[in-house]
Amino acid sequence: MINLVLFGPPGAGKGTQAQILKNKYQLIHISTGDVFRFNIKSKTALGTLAKSYMDKGHLVPDDVTIKMLNAEVKKNPQAKGFIFDGFPRTQDQAIALAKLMEQKHSQINAMIALEVADDVLVERLLERGKYSGRADDSNGSVIRERIVEYYNKTDILKAYYQAEKKYYGIKGVGSISEISDRLCAVIDTL
Ligand code: AMP
């Protein structure tokens, strides 16, 4: 199995790159943001709860998010591996993910981070908000709050994976194919 964490702040391009990588390496792509949005659309209790945090640009609580992620992984017992996109976002999530992989007699092989400057992120998210239909992309103050959450709670995960010698940072600016070439160059060494 090969299990990757695709990492980076909101707007770094994780979702776009995950689509390319999942096809190339035959991996299951799990985006926690997408699962929350699906639940919001389907008007489930999980969706209502998640929306109250997402609309403010805050993280959904760990217990809820971890439970949901475990369920998504369990839906794919035959997977050759996973791309986790938008998860983990806190240290407790990273610990839960390690445990889950251990249960599968596997591990996270790498965290690959897309590095993009903050001013570029805000620009990209506002642009995406014009057509994505995502409320959290159309409002400048919600975007800034998401970036603040990233630096307060998520950015520390670099150190977590660096300590395990699993962290790879790549430049997240350029054309989509230039960036995916950089990602593949890392994955092919694993
Ligand atoms: P994303 O699609 O990854 O940008 O996520 C959109 C929103 O969903 C985030 O701003 C959070 O409110 C919520 N979310 C997604 N993934 C997580 C996670 N791993 N932990 C907590 N909240 C999350």
Describe the structure.
- This protein is α/β, with parallel strands linked by helices and about 190 residues long.
- The chain has one domain: P-loop containing nucleotide triphosphate hydrolases (Rossmann fold), CATH 3.40.50.
- It is about 60% helix and about 15% strand.
- It contains 10 helices and 5 strands, in the order βαβαααβαβααααβα.
- The protein has a 5-stranded parallel sheet with strand order 2-3-1-4-5, with helices on both faces.
- Helix 1 crosses helix 10 and helix 2 crosses helix 3.
- The radius of gyration is 16 Å and the shape is globular.
- The termini are close together.
- The model has no long low-confidence stretch (mean pLDDT about 95).
- The structure holds adenosine monophosphate.
- Tell how many strands the DSSP assignment holds: 5
CATH superfamily annotation: P-loop containing nucleotide triphosphate hydrolases
CATH class: Alpha Beta
Strand order of the largest sheet: 2-3-1-4-5
- Unreliable spans are none
CATH fold node name: Rossmann fold
Largest sheet: 5 strands, parallel
Domain module tally: 1
Overview in brief:
By secondary structure, this protein is an alpha/beta fold. The chain has one domain: P-loop containing nucleotide triphosphate hydrolases (Rossmann fold), CATH 3.40.50.300. It is built from ten helices and five strands; from the N terminus they run βαβαααβαβααααβα.
